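User: Show me a protein chain along with its predicted structure.
Assistant: Here is one chain, sequence first, then structure tokens.
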Amino acid sequence: MELNSKIPDGPIAEKWTNYKFDHKLVNPANRRKYDVIVVGTGLAGASAAATLGEQGYNVKAFTFHDSPRRAHSIAAQGGINAAKNYKGDSDSIWRLFYDTQKGGDFRSREANVYRLAEESVNIIDQMTAQGVPFAREYGGLLDNRSFGGAQVSRTFYARGQTGQQLLLGAYQQLARQVGRGNVQLYNRMELVDVVTVDGTAAGIVVRDLLNGQVSSHSAHAVVLATGGYSNVFFLSTNAMNCNVTAAWRAHRRGAAFANPCYTQIHPTCIPQSDEFQSKLTLMSESLRNDGRIWVPKDPNETRPPDQIPDEDRDYYLERRYPSFGNLAPRDVSSRAALVEVAAGKGVGPLKNGVYLDFADAIGRLGKQVIEERYGNLFEMYERITDESPYEVPMRIYPAPHYTMGGLWVDYELMTTIPGLYAIGEANFSDHGANRLGASALMQGLADGYFVLPNTISNYLAPKLGQSVVPTDHPEFQAAEAAARARFDGYLAIGGDRSPDSFHMELGRIMLEHCGMERTEQSLTTALAAIPPLHEEFKANLRVTGSGESTNQTLEKAGRVDDFFELAQLMCLDALTREESCGGHFRAEHQTEEGEAERDDERFGHVAAWEWTGDAAQPNRHVEELQFVDVPLAVRSYK
């Protein structure tokens, strides 16, 4: 397997401009001769499908939801980054590039990150023109707030509903193209396989979630915009239906999977309340603009939080990272919370949280200002916990949230399968080992609106006049037969355990042994525990109902099956990467102060794994990273 990143020549500030001039184009009159499949209709997928449709391509868009508006992008709360410098605080494209490289602990491709920073300014103009109601200052200008890992205010927001408003903007453009006939939208369809012919992407096999029918669709190019895989941990901030199946099925067909161990544990989530919980709730990072994080200095403290004076509180982020304080990056903040709770200073009924306190901000700004900024988040928290953050501090604790790993892609966002692209969280490309807050929406929209529509023509142009592979081709027929056999097989097992019970047990293994902190021993333990559990899944799974109507248990079985194989790869990747960087924290590799200790000489690269047919023995390939414009340095937020 060859990993050719296709990074253009020239200075970093000119690479993207040079690429757009040098790459092959498709004449507007010829675009209707090409078919493109887009799988997933979140921010990345909806914006890509809408833009490709607007350009004139024939697009088929697939979602397993009843409407594209249900995509998990809707759950993003805090905001979207852009280097507009509206606050006049010395922000720039270069600073956003630098902050993202540093925030990712120097484990991402410089050229991709700079391009992301370049396009960030266009995203805001695009979304504002579409009517997204970003917050505004008194004079009518768009407002900004701060997020972790930056010392400037560059985050645009719509209260605590930014993802929802952005998705509605992208959806209305998608709906416009559907109405014009440029995009065919397939609801309640789940990808169950990617089809390749002679090593090239030819189409997909999908399963209708309403009647169980399996069918094929072919195209000149296939785009996966199917999100991340945090639900491998069972408990995460992701929606219950989020899964890895689309990316994993592509991986099994030959697409390299890069850096699967790079997972992000978000520092501000509502702590787990009992062992039977099946979902965790995110509290936006934006709350750390005005909330102060602390724990009691005394592990045996019993007083209510409002009765604990300042001298008995430990504002540990402000103490450890005075330059960034409560806005330290997510990986740093999460590990700091882990240290405090492990020391017995956790708060709440289960002693599994820390306080996020708004008393100072309310006293300084007034309740009305805080309500304007965070009212819907405070309301959500109170509905779940029956505690008002206006009166008592929030209780928060880190939880699995985002995955920086994903399908390996080159500069054009193409995977190692020619004609198969991955965009948004489904790929690995922009965030290194740790994503900064408010950068997920930025990447999804940059990929969908501005990057993919420019790069895909370089692949399509030489195919002018070529027909798509017909769906009665033997490869399509074989993939359909295999998919039907797989789902029939789940129904036929007739065991005693539900998919959820297996998923919960797998999640516990992953969170305990491959979560916020990993060791050689813990990862070895996980790798020994996962295969036997997977074998039990294959022998003792129970799926009720039939495969000929809506059956969420059957859907879950297929997704959990893929999670088992992914989990092994995550642990193997974490075991092989003998360093600490970003969200990958190997306890054996830390400084005297407990910070991540990288090994740039041995691991300054991307690890891209190739499927061999045996989940326990994949092949590891390497893309060496070049650090030219942001020299390697020890990451410090003190």
